[in-house]
Amino acid sequence: MRDVREALMVARNSDGKLVRRPLSPHVQVHRWPLSMALSIAHRISGVGLGIGTLLMTGWLASAASSEDGFEKYQRFLGSAFGILLLFGWTAALVYHLMSGTRHLWMDLGRGFDAKDYENSGLAVLVGTGGLTVLIWLVGLIVW
Description:
It is built from five helices and two strands. The longest helix is centred in the middle third of the chain and has 32 residues, at 34-65. The protein has one domain: Fumarate reductase/succinate dehydrogenase, transmembrane subunit (3 helical TM bundles of succinate and fumarate reductases). Helix 2 packs antiparallel against helix 3 (67-78), helix 2 (34-65) crosses helix 4 and helix 4 (80-107) packs antiparallel against helix 5 (114-142). Helices cover 74% and strands 4% of the residues. By secondary structure, the chain is mainly alpha-helical.
């Protein structure tokens, strides 16, 4: 054996005979499937929903505590950073809802064909973007 890599390639099978282990493919060789990215995004959006809910709970608590505290909180939420946080919270809420609905559909045993699987993932992304923008446009018109 020439080096450590060569030594790591050698193993024994169930008969005790020396065999070469197969090389596992490197991570960079594979592309991320859409379903994997959506699954990770679903988990991240769940964390974002928790943080956004704390933000909104703080807003309600400030409204209940004092007028001055509420004005400060309103000023923060009305800033560019506050609006960005609220937009992100809305996007996380819509994404989590649509992705969860997709999972419920798959729990019924539907949508597992490769084409349906890919299309439902794309529908979640497009629907999230469109519905988030629609919610904000309606909010701006009503407000």
